[in-house]
Amino acid sequence: MNESKRLLIADALASIVEKARHGGPVLRIGLMAAGSELGSEEILRGGRLVQEEYSFVRVVAIGPRLPGFDDLEWIETPDCAADIAAAMEKAMRDGAVAGAVAMHFPFPIGVATIGRIMTPGRGKPMFIASCTGSTALQRPEALLYNVVYGIATAKACGIKDPTVAFLNLDGAGPVLRALTRMREKGYAVNFGTSKRGDGGSLLRGNDLVAGAVDVLVCDSLTGNVLVKLFSTFTSGGRYESVGWGYGPSVGEGWKNIVSIVSRASGAPVIANALALTAKVAAGKLPALVASELADARKAGFDAALAELKPKGSDTTEDIRKPPVVPVDAEIPGVDVLDMENAVQALWKEGIYAETAMGCTGPVVRIQVAAKENAVAILKNGGFI
Q1: Helices of type H across the chain
Q2: Could you tell me if 51 and 111 lie in one domain?
Q3: Domain span including residue 145
Q4: Are residues 70 and 192 in the same domain?
């Protein structure tokens, strides 16, 4: 028997033993083990907590090894954010982990995260669609995508027919009407209603506290604020102690499950985020997103998006995209509504750039060698 066959048999036997020990399949979830304002020990305590609570979750800490946490698996890296991020992405790409929990990830436009909070009025969990990233550059289009992605995430957690409603924001009314027309054409959306006397599917702040629905739809910047408020309301703001964090990433064609927590997230939230990541990975979240999008498209999703798109938003100038190159630097400070125009301004000057949403807002991604020139161009154009 050659060495490669011997290794394959050893791996298979190890997997069988581990499944027997834990009563079922074991999911390895990566955990970015550095970068917290509360210290690395707080992050790793979250990893330890989830393993103590859920026998099917194995945490793979990614970063510089910290003594005293040998009960976790490790992918060791230097104490460098770029090295940790690269190792995390490689682990997902190679299938070493089924998903990952991170404090920062530059999602491309079209990808966002679906957070989960514990509502204090009734002690009821509620998904917030969405919380980081951006499913579209314009709010109405993003809200419609967020409906589909929020439903898919809830289903991945075992909620078969989740109730959905909108936070009463500017632009939510037209999206609600578009979604109502989609339901008339066969899209199976289950509208939830306000607990206030006049009801309706545009929710007030009271409804958030009461957990009126399974999935609350809003734009990602508002969702980000809501998660922060609900997770720190007992701690004075500096320590996120309640909830599941900013949730797993979703998007059309997006295969990775990257869940976001804050640099202020405490061990209980990190543990919950790891458990949620494992749960949606077991629930095959990317496949559910694709299925939910397909159902929505049968009921006029694309036509609804076209109707919601702001008039006159298309540019008439034909700017050729430069050759694609690896991007390893970020420029923050561009308003979300100006991101496409900012990238076009760089393309016009022959600099390849991409739009993305980091955890603190929009960023333009470029090669580090072009950063100084790109910053000057964006400043001259009034983008930053």
Answers
A1: 3-22, 40-53, 81-94, 139-156, 172-184, 205-210, 220-232, 267-282, 285-298, 301-308, 339-348, 371-380
A2: no
A3: 107-308
A4: no
Q: What is the pLDDT of residues 180-233, one digit of tens each?
A: 999 999 999 999 999 887 788 999 889 999 999 999 999 999 999 999 999 998
pLDDT grade for 339, boundaries at 50, 70 and 90: confident
Report the domain count for the chain.
3
- 131 among known catalytic residues: no
Whether residue 157 lies inside any domain: the answer is yes
242-to-44, 54, 154 alpha-carbon distances in Å: 17, 18, 19
Does residue 201 share a domain with residue 121?
yes
Question: What does R_g of the chain's alpha carbons equal in angstroms?
Answer: 22
Segment 106-123, tens digit of pLDDT: 899 999 999 999 999 889
Of 44, 70, 101, the position where a domain reaches its end is: 101
- Whether the CB-CB separation of 342 and 381 falls below 8 Å is answered with yes
Domain co-membership, 254 together with 294: yes
Question: What confidence category does residue 10 fall into, taking pLDDT thresholds of 50, 70 and 90?
Answer: very low
State which amino acid sits at residue 71: D
The tokens for 297 are 């498209």
CB atoms within 10 A of CB 15: 12
Annotated catalytic residue, options 131, 157, 218, 359:
359
Residue 349 lies in a domain: yes
Residues 128 and 227 in one domain: yes
Write the CATH number for 357. 3.30.70.1530
pLDDT at 24: 61
Q: Give the Cα separation of 276 and 118 in Å (integer).
A: 13
The torsion defined by the Cα of 136, 375, 224 and 36, in degrees rounded to 10, comes to 140
pLDDT-derived band of residue 12, with 50, 70 and 90 as boundaries? Answer: very low
Q: Are residues 339 and 302 in the same domain?
A: no
Residues in the chain: 384
Q: What is the pLDDT of residues 273-319, one digit of tens each?
A: 999 999 999 999 999 999 999 999 999 999 999 999 876 545 446 78
DSSP notation for 295-355: HHHHTTHHHHHHHHSPTT-S-----PPPPP----EEEE---GGGHHHHHHHHHHTT---EE
Q: Are 190 and 163 part of one and the same domain?
A: yes
**Cβ-proximal residues to 325 (8 Å cutoff; 6+ apart), any chain:** 352, 367
